[in-house]
């Protein structure tokens, strides 16, 4: 309710004799009442609760600029905010720090802190890490949504060449954009498999042919298939490079470097075969060509472009550098200790296979990893006991970091699925709100046209973002606030 005049505020003398430090105020947040004293609130004078202590003397406008409602009889301020978040925020007045309870959305909690004008520096470090992770997720969702919107949108001001570049880029890089794009992705995947199979089959002696000089070489049919596959990879890479929005970033991308390594050896070996014989001996040319052919194994990594599982595994391993480092450190310490012990214990045997500690490193590696080739083995009793302890320690050292690495993989995989679903959900809400806005705009435009006597089409290309719980501020510069108007009295 509204107040008729400012004279109805009790407990405030005309000369302002009441001290704000001794004042008691009642705050009702979402139906939950809290009593505060001025000396506590004035520790942080810039916060909204501290401003309530001194707002009574400012009259009607001052009070209702800070709260939703006010009861002068009870001196009770009403706020239509989240009471659970408020219970966490008021800890700053008693403990000097804030902890976010489990189950509260970090972004919503941040918005509540901004409303109560409490600085984020009072949030505990563990809660800040959770908030940063949530921000990264929303930024990733916003990035994915923006990419989809860029693909759907058509800028009439762009040149024909720019529009053609976008079409080629979507056609080759985004299989989900259309049915022909999916067909191209499947064909590219098949060419990678065929090329890998041809590389393996070409090494079978029964399928090789002998040239005039008696040297074995690949069958001409397999060579032709290899040439066709390289032609496909070359055309695909060139088209993707031409249509790329950022060519420098494209050229330095890891997967694109793999593509170059898969294509380049063919052309280098072709050049050496036809031109290198004039500059160097034929045997040297053949050795260089054979070495370059080994580099064809790089094309198997092209499968990662078409496999989300391989991409997830790569990112999970990147996130697991700490665990992998611990694994290597454990193994390195164990290899050094057990190889030195094995060398010392085996010196008493006349037919010892442990000639030196560096040579014993190989034995320690294959023992701790439970491979055990048997080329080097202990012959004394103490040496065998040392070997038994070494492979037991190796099993333990390898098993310890495996669980965190698997957890990182599962966490990242589930996170990617959640982000993908959230992006689709956000797009659906944006499309729904856009349709509602367009319908409302059409009605208002028709009313204006009928009132002004004009005729003409109405176009509305604005897309309004949704007011969902996962609202993405990065997609709009507008300010959005909650509009719950429940009564707290």
TrEMBL record:
<dbReference type="InterPro" id="IPR011333">
    <property type="entry name" value="SKP1/BTB/POZ_sf"/>
</dbReference>
<keyword id="KW-0813">Transport</keyword>
<feature type="domain" description="Potassium channel tetramerisation-type BTB">
    <location>
        <begin position="25"/>
        <end position="126"/>
    </location>
</feature>
<comment type="subunit">
    <text>Heterotetramer with KCNB1 or KCNB2.</text>
</comment>
<keyword id="KW-0407">Ion channel</keyword>
<dbReference type="GO" id="GO:0001508">
    <property type="term" value="P:action potential"/>
</dbReference>
<keyword id="KW-0406">Ion transport</keyword>
<dbReference type="GO" id="GO:0051260">
    <property type="term" value="P:protein homooligomerization"/>
</dbReference>
<dbReference type="InterPro" id="IPR003968">
    <property type="entry name" value="K_chnl_volt-dep_Kv"/>
</dbReference>
<keyword id="KW-0175">Coiled coil</keyword>
<dbReference type="Pfam" id="PF02214">
    <property type="entry name" value="BTB_2"/>
</dbReference>
<keyword id="KW-0630">Potassium</keyword>
<feature type="domain" description="Ion transport">
    <location>
        <begin position="182"/>
        <end position="416"/>
    </location>
</feature>
<feature type="region of interest" description="Disordered">
    <location>
        <begin position="1"/>
        <end position="21"/>
    </location>
</feature>
<keyword id="KW-1133">Transmembrane helix</keyword>
<keyword id="KW-0633">Potassium transport</keyword>
<keyword id="KW-0472">Membrane</keyword>
<keyword id="KW-0851">Voltage-gated channel</keyword>
<comment type="similarity">
    <text>Belongs to the potassium channel family. F (TC 1.A.1.2) subfamily. Kv5.1/KCNF1 sub-subfamily.</text>
</comment>
<dbReference type="InterPro" id="IPR027359">
    <property type="entry name" value="Volt_channel_dom_sf"/>
</dbReference>
<feature type="transmembrane region" description="Helical">
    <location>
        <begin position="183"/>
        <end position="204"/>
    </location>
</feature>
<feature type="transmembrane region" description="Helical">
    <location>
        <begin position="324"/>
        <end position="341"/>
    </location>
</feature>
<dbReference type="InterPro" id="IPR003131">
    <property type="entry name" value="T1-type_BTB"/>
</dbReference>
<dbReference type="InterPro" id="IPR048010">
    <property type="entry name" value="KCNF1-like_BTB_POZ"/>
</dbReference>
<dbReference type="InterPro" id="IPR005821">
    <property type="entry name" value="Ion_trans_dom"/>
</dbReference>
<comment type="function">
    <text>Regulatory alpha-subunit of the voltage-gated potassium (Kv) channel which, when coassembled with KCNB1 or KCNB2, can modulate their expression and their gating kinetics by acting on deactivation upon repolarization and inactivation during maintained depolarization. Accelerates inactivation but has relatively little effect on deactivation. Coexpression with KCNB1 or KCNB2 markedly slows inactivation.</text>
</comment>
<keyword id="KW-1003">Cell membrane</keyword>
<keyword id="KW-0631">Potassium channel</keyword>
<dbReference type="GO" id="GO:0008076">
    <property type="term" value="C:voltage-gated potassium channel complex"/>
</dbReference>
<dbReference type="Pfam" id="PF00520">
    <property type="entry name" value="Ion_trans"/>
</dbReference>
<dbReference type="GO" id="GO:0005249">
    <property type="term" value="F:voltage-gated potassium channel activity"/>
</dbReference>
<dbReference type="InterPro" id="IPR003971">
    <property type="entry name" value="K_chnl_volt-dep_Kv5/Kv9"/>
</dbReference>
<protein>
    <recommendedName>
        <fullName>Voltage-gated potassium channel regulatory subunit KCNF1</fullName>
    </recommendedName>
</protein>
<dbReference type="InterPro" id="IPR028325">
    <property type="entry name" value="VG_K_chnl"/>
</dbReference>
<keyword id="KW-0812">Transmembrane</keyword>
<feature type="transmembrane region" description="Helical">
    <location>
        <begin position="385"/>
        <end position="406"/>
    </location>
</feature>
<feature type="transmembrane region" description="Helical">
    <location>
        <begin position="248"/>
        <end position="270"/>
    </location>
</feature>
<feature type="coiled-coil region">
    <location>
        <begin position="415"/>
        <end position="452"/>
    </location>
</feature>
